[in-house]
Design goal:
Helix 1 (25-36) runs antiparallel to helix 3 (82-94). This protein has helices at 25-36, 52-57, 82-94, 149-159, 175-181, 188-191, 213-216, 218-224, 262-272, 301-311, 327-336, 370-376, 395-399, 429-441, 473-484, 488-498, and strands at 44-45, 75-77, 98-102, 121-125, 132-135, 140-144, 163-164, 198-204, 210-211, 234-241, 243-244, 249-257, 280-287, 290-297, 322-325, 356-364, 387-392, 415-423, 466-467, 470-471. By secondary structure, it is of the alpha+beta class. The radius of gyration is 22 Å and the shape is globular. Among the domains are: 23-123, Uridine Diphospho-n-acetylenolpyruvylglucosamine Reductase, domain 2 (2-Layer Sandwich), CATH 3.30.43; 130-242, 2-Layer Sandwich (Uridine Diphospho-n-acetylenolpyruvylglucosamine Reductase, domain 3), CATH 3.30.465.10. A hairpin with a 2-residue loop joins strand 19 (466-467) and strand 20. The strands form 5 sheets. The chain has a 7-stranded antiparallel sheet with strand order 15-12-14-13-17-18-16. Strands 5-6-10-8-9 form a 5-stranded antiparallel sheet. A 4-stranded mixed sheet has the order 1-2-4-3. The longest helix has 13 residues, at 82-94. GO terms for molecular function: FAD binding; oxidoreductase activity. This is FAD-binding PCMH-type domain-containing protein. It holds the Pfam family BBE. Its cofactor is FAD. Residues 69-245 form the FAD-binding PCMH-type domain.
């Protein structure tokens, strides 16, 4: 069998392979004709289709990527089976039309459905490939890439109470992109990242073959588990290991203002959170001059209060701060803060184009001093201020070797930072704020390279340059080593083996590199 995931190879000038050139209008027409011979017409949307705009917008999360000047796809293919995806790739290769793949549309730079530069491309939208097949006895599941995190959580909890999956907090994320980039979440200290619990996958490669783990081989299977979406092929489904959770977990939200010692509490949290018992995870959201400590404990309230009284008395947690609930309910409560919000909310895939956003990320290996936190908090004062999310590492996620998966931010990492700016209209205050804070933080975060999380994609770090028909390895290193550290070269070599012609390409796709061994 086969699976889809992309891997890039940088070719020398003397070996241009079978790269895809810019198609003519005739080639574009031939591409659409080719699709029509293998894919039902109701599964292909062109700009002339009445539903084209609604399908395109269905997974766009940021209005800055839906403007009159946005470079939009030649068409959107909405496959319902693997053969449709294979046909899209084969037709694209034959007629020089690249495809980009979208599962949930959460790509922070929108590269799954738009291009930064003028080019002709198609989008393969996996929203109709979203089934979840649970094997309760084996504690495994096959989940399609078009399913959302929320749909997976809901399906697993309903089919196999007592089992769960370690993944992210945002329920509308598509699993194809989320897992491809790593998958951090509230249970990663107990069970690792999402990629640490992937057992198999199916992928359509650049030659249109359908591959499973065995057919992929060691390098490609390694690369799709953390090497980022849109690089090595199109992953259609993942076989995942489900993990045990108790019938009752406890969640707590405790907010501290500056006057209540927020800076002191965050300073202590930095070294405490990565070393806590693995059943206990605390993340922090800094916003509006306060810090919100969100705690998930895989157990009951009494045990949590005892532990926190001993380990983190600065929070002053009492039983009144606890909310006991099912694990499934906690995945809703972390966002709603309301125990009455139904778990069916997890099945909601709708999105809004009301708010512009920009995201950046960092990793911290040495605790930031209290004096520095006193200087950080004022950044969150004012109408342009966004927020900062701190996700603790350590535990299981930190015990896996950096090179075991493409995700390299493990050994010695205390926590990840996500910076989020939001604004409305054509304002620039939000972008100016996040750029200023990001620059201010540079001395206090990881260095050489300054690390970043590929699932928080940021084109400010760098964009690819295409030389001789393929992506330049040197241009890719600029951003690639921030995301993947020392694993970037292996990713590029793998790309060279499986997609030497650089068919799966975007502004931050892994470039193909000829093996140096």
């Amino acid at each position: 069998m086969a699976v889809s995931t992309r891997m890039a190879l940088l070719l020398t000038a003397c070996f241009l392979g079978c790269y895809v050139s810019v198609p003519s209008s005739a080639a574009s027409g031939d591409f659409l004709q080719c699709l029509s011979s293998s894919i039902p017409s109701e599964r292909v949307f062109t700009p002339d289709s009445p539903s084209f705009t609604s399908v395109l917008v269905s997974s766009i999360r940021n209005p800055k990527f839906f403007t009159p000047t946005t470079v939009r796809p030649l068409c959107i293919v909405t496959p319902t089976n693997a053969s449709h995806v294979q046909a899209a790739v084969l037709c694209g290769r034959r007629h020089n039309v690249r495809v980009r793949v979208r599962s949930g549309g959460h790509d922070y730079e929108g590269l799954s459905y738009r291009s930064e530069r003028p080019e002709v491309f198609a989008v393969v939208d996996l929203a109709n490939l979203r089934s979840v097949r649970v094997d309760r006895g084996a504690a495994t599941a096959w989940v399609d890439s078009g399913a959302t995190v929320g749909e997976l959580y809901h399906a697993v909890a309903k089919a196999a109470p007592g089992l769960a999956f370690p993944a992210g907090v945002c329920s509308t994320m598509g699993l194809g992109g989320h897992i491809s980039g790593g998958g951090i979440g509230m249970m990663m200290r107990k069970y690792g990242l999402s990629i640490d619990n992937v057992l198999d996958a199916t992928l359509v490669d650049a030659n249109g073959r359908l591959l499973d783990k065995e057919a992929m081989g060691t390098d490609l299977f390694w690369a799709i588990r953390g090497g980022g979406g849109g690089n090595f092929g199109i992953v259609l489904s993942w076989k995942i290991r489900l993990v045990p959770v108790p019938s009752t977990v406890t969640f707590s939200n405790i907010q501290k203002t500056i006057d209540q010692g927020a800076a002191n509490a965050v300073t202590k949290w930095q070294t405490l959170a990565p070393s806590l018992p693995e059943d206990l995870s605390i993340r922090v959201i800094v916003q509006d001059q306060h810090a919100l400590f969100q705690t998930l404990y895989l157990g009951g309230c009494s045990a949590l209060v005892r532990a926190m009284s001993s380990l983190f008395p600065e929070l002053g947690m009492t039983r009144a701060d606890c909310r006991e609930m099912s694990w499934l309910k906690s995945t809703v409560y972390i966002n709603s803060g309301d125990t009455k919000t139904p778990v069916e909310t997890l099945l909601n895939r709708t999105t809004s184009l009301s708010t512009f956003t920009k995201n950046k990320s960092d990793y911290v290996k040495q605790a930031i001093t209290k004096d520095t936190w006193d200087k950080i908090f004022p950044w969150f004062n004012g109408s342009a201020a966004g927020l900062m999310i701190l996700e603790p590492h350590g535990g299981r996620v930190g015990s896996i070797a950096d090179e075991d998966t493409p995700y390299p931010h493990r050994s010695g990492v205390l926590y990840n930072i996500q910076y989020v700016a939001f604004w409305t209209g054509n304002g620039t205050d939000g972008p100016d704020w996040i750029s200023g804070l990001y620059n201010f933080m540079e001395p206090f975060v990881s260095k050489n390279p300054r690390g970043a999380y590929v699932n928080y994609r940021d084109l400010d770090i760098g964009e690819n340059a295409v030389v001789g028909g393929v992506t330049s390895y040197e241009s890719g290193k600029v951003w690639g080593e921030s995301y993947f550290g020392g694993n970037f070269e292996r990713l590029a070599i793998t790309k060279g083996k499986v997609d030497a012609g650089d068919y799966f390409r975007n502004e931050q796709s892994v470039p193909p590199l000829l093996s140096r061994k």
